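Internal ticket #5521
Category: modeling
Description: The requester needs a full-assembly model to guide mutagenesis choices. All entity lines are attached below as received. Residue total reported by intake: 493.
Assigned to: D.W.
Attached entities:
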Amino acid sequence: MIFWLISTIIKIIVVFGIILLAAAYLTLLERKIAARIQNRLGPMEAGFHGLLQPIADGIKLFFKEDIIPAEANKALFILAPIIAVIPALVTFSVIPFGAPVKILGHIVPLQITDVNIGILFILALTSLGVYGVVVGGWASNSKYALLGGLRTAAQMISYEISLALSIIGVIMIAGSLSLANIVSAQSHIWFIVFQPAGFLIYLIASTAEMNRVPFDLGEAEGELVAGFHTEYSSMKFAFYFIGEYAQIVVNSAIITTLFLGGWQGPFLPSVIWFIIKVFAVILVYLWFRWTYPRLRYDELMHFGWKFLLPLALANIIVTGFVMILLGK
Amino acid sequence: MLFYVFSIIAIYSALMVILSRNPLTSALYLVLCFFAIAGFYVILDMEFLAAMQVLVYAGAIMVLVVLVIMLLNLANAKNIPKDFHQMFIAVISFILLFFEIFLYAIKGSGKVPTGIYTTAFIKTIGNTQIIGEFLFTKYIFPFEVASILLLIAIIGAFIFARRKF
C-alpha cells in the first residue's frame, strides 16, 4: 500500500514536470520549425541556438505587469486560464507511457492510473477545455475577446463530435475502453492500419479542438486582435500558452496510444519508443500549422459537419461490417 | 466521507445556480453541480455513467447553454423585475417532490444486484458492457422511444431554424 502510494506520487510529479517542461520547450521547437519552413534561423541569441529562449520568455512574462480590465468579471477572469490548463494536464493521468517495470519485487505499471473507461475519461476532459476559452472571452468584457470565445465554442462543439466518433472504431476492434488494454491489443499490428480514416479524422478534429492553424478562428489576428486572450497579460497569458502546448503533447500521446501502438516497439526501452512516437506526432501538428492557411468560418463549419462527421459515421459502419464479415 | 464532500458541493452549487444574479455564473455552478453528481456515480462504481455525465452534460449541453447566454448578452440585463406569478406552482411541486424523497427515504431499502450480476462480477467486466447489453435487450423499447424523441427534436429544431430564411 505504502509502496503503491509513493510510486504513484513519484509518477505524478515526474509526468507533471515533464509535460510542463515539454510545453515550454515546444514554444522553442515551434519557432525553430516555423523558421526553417520560412527559410530563417529562428531564436539564436539566448543560449546555444536559442536553447535558453523558453526560460527567457518565462522570466519576461513573469515580470510583466498583470492587467485586469476595469469592467471585467474579476473572479472568472482569473479562473479562466486555470480552467484552460487543468484538463490538459489531468488527461495524461490515464495514458500508459511505458511497459510495466519491476521495482523491489513490485510490478509498477508506467501509467498513473488505469481506469476501465480510460477513453471516455479523456473525451470528457477534452470536452471541458472549451470552458477556459469561453469563460475567458466572456469575463474580459471586450468585444474581440467575446467574439473569439463565441467562435471557439461553436467550433469546438462541432469538432468534438467527429473527435469522439473517430475513436469508436478503435474501441470496436480492441473491445475495451481501457487504454492499457488498447495498447496491448496493438502488439502485432498498429490500429492505424485498420483505422486510417479514424486516424486522419482524429488528427484533424484534434487540431480544431486545440484551436490551432488552420482552425484558429477564435484568435484570428487579422480580425479579432488576439481573440479570447486579447485582454490577458503576464502569467495569465502564459497559462493559456502552457495550456495550448500541453494539449499538443497530450493529443500526440493519445494518438500514439490509440493508433500507433502506444509504447510498444522493438529493441529500445518502451518509454523511449513512446517519446519518439509522441515527438513524431507533435512534429506533424507543427507542420500543419506552418503549411495551411486559415479556413474561413463557413468553410470551417461545412468541413466539420458535412465532411468529417459523415466520414466518421461511415468509418464506424464500415468497421462494423468488416468485423462481422471476419467473424470477430 | 466522500459522499458528504460531494453532497455539500452539489447542494451548495445547486443553490448558487438559482441564487447568483449573473446567468453565466449560474451556468458554471450548474457545471460544478454535474461534477459533484458524477462523483456520486464514481462512489457507486458507475464509472461509465460518471464519464457520460461529464461528457454529455458538462461538456456538451452546458457549453450550448453558455453559448446562448453569451450570444444574448444576458449578463448585462441586471435589472430584471422580479416575477412571482409562478410561485404557486413552485410551492406545489416543491411539496410533492419533497414528499416523494421523504417516502423513499423511509420506505426504500438498498437495492442489491440480483441474478448473475453480483457486485464482484460487475467489477471484473466493468459496467459499460452490462449497461450496453441491457440497453439493447431488456430495455430496447424505452431506448428506441428516446431515440425517436431525439430525432423529432432534431427535425423540429431544423424546421424552426429554416423559418428565418
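Resolution: model delivered.
Comment from assignee: Helices of chain B lie at 2-19, 23-43, 47-72, 87-107, 119-125, 127-136, 140-162.
Ticket closed.
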